[in-house]
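Summary for the funding panel

The consortium committed to producing paired sequence-structure records for every protein in the target list. Below we show the first two records in order, beginning with the earlier of the two.
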Amino acid sequence: MSTGTRTMPLPWTNLYGLARTLVALGTAGTLAFSSAETLFRPVATVGPHPPCDGFAAASVFCFAPAGEESYTGLAVLKWACVLVLLVVASGWRPRLLAVPHLYVNFSVFTAIAIGDGGDQIALVLSLLLTLPALGDGRRWHWQRPDEEELSRSRRAWAVLGITSVIVLRLQMSVLYFQAAVAKLPHAEWHDGTAMWYWGNSLHFGAPPWMSPAVNAVVSTSWGVAALTWLPLVVEMLLCASLLLPQRVRWHVMWAGLFFHLMIAVVMGLWSFALAMSGGVVLLCAPLGAHLALRDRDRSTSAEEEAALPRPGGKEAVPV
């Protein structure tokens, strides 16, 4: 590449694919493991679900027949959405499934009565992943992107895709900043007792098989303080991750993924945890990073090896 040529990372890597998979699995889990009667039950002061007025009328669930058979129709549409999401999660033909993925997440967000935050996060992330996916001509989003010279239209899609990923990273950074700062005015987060209340909550407390272990920790002063303050530290590190060296950012990514895994296991918020994990991967991985899954059997110079980001390579295109 000649001196002075500017390069831009390609958005179409398997780490971006992993993010799509995690977001799709989160929404699919909400639909698959909840009955239609639970998802679409009436809500006090809000009314029946799905609400089919205004822009919410565009939801796929508003096509269900009204009357006594409405739950049957909603169940059929629910499983159709699960099927679409599972195909998205498999990584097949991102370009073809970009808009269906967004539409399903829009339909879920506007229609269900049991939102836990995961549906909103999934909608925002799937919206920001639409542009990269529309430009992704691969058969599977796990494949390494084509390194050959891109056509003018492909370069335009690459610019749009990587710009959307950058916006997604900024969105995740702001989200974690807000999550951390919003806790600070509350005394329970100051004195380190907040997780005692969460651990004993009837709605979000630990499941019965885990309650003895959680209670043993939150019943001690050092244990409950650690569980209260560590999430604040992780959230602030994730907020500031774009300012950190990449070698540090990998550790922050693993801390964030473990943090959300614990939220899923202890509080049962699996859809929220999966969607957020998809965002964490794109927030902390370098732009254009591709997880190395193939054998390292080809010769690589020491300088080239040292330049490769971890855990994978990095694709770029001249612009």
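The next record, for a separate protein in the list, is shown here:
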Amino acid sequence: MRRVHVVVQGEVQGVGYRYTMRLVARRAGVVGWVRNRRDGSVEAEIEGDSDRVDEVLAWMAEGPPGSRVDTATVEDATPAGGSGFEVLPTA
């Protein structure tokens, strides 16, 4: 089990990034959350089998059509368990 904390910067707000990511994450079978940050970036935590987490990370590096990802900073986090993948309010 692997959990990561990710911050994505670029043109990632107002382009459907969070809601598309929720679909991608649910299809991959990972749990966690995603939210916008006030600085214009998107932040997420993803947990699941390592290959499934890598699948979502690969999508995050590209984003949905209309987005532009400049950087994606990934840090390991302590697995927390849980169920589902949610879009949280802006932090």
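Regarding this second record: The radius of gyration is 12 Å. The chain has two helices and five strands.
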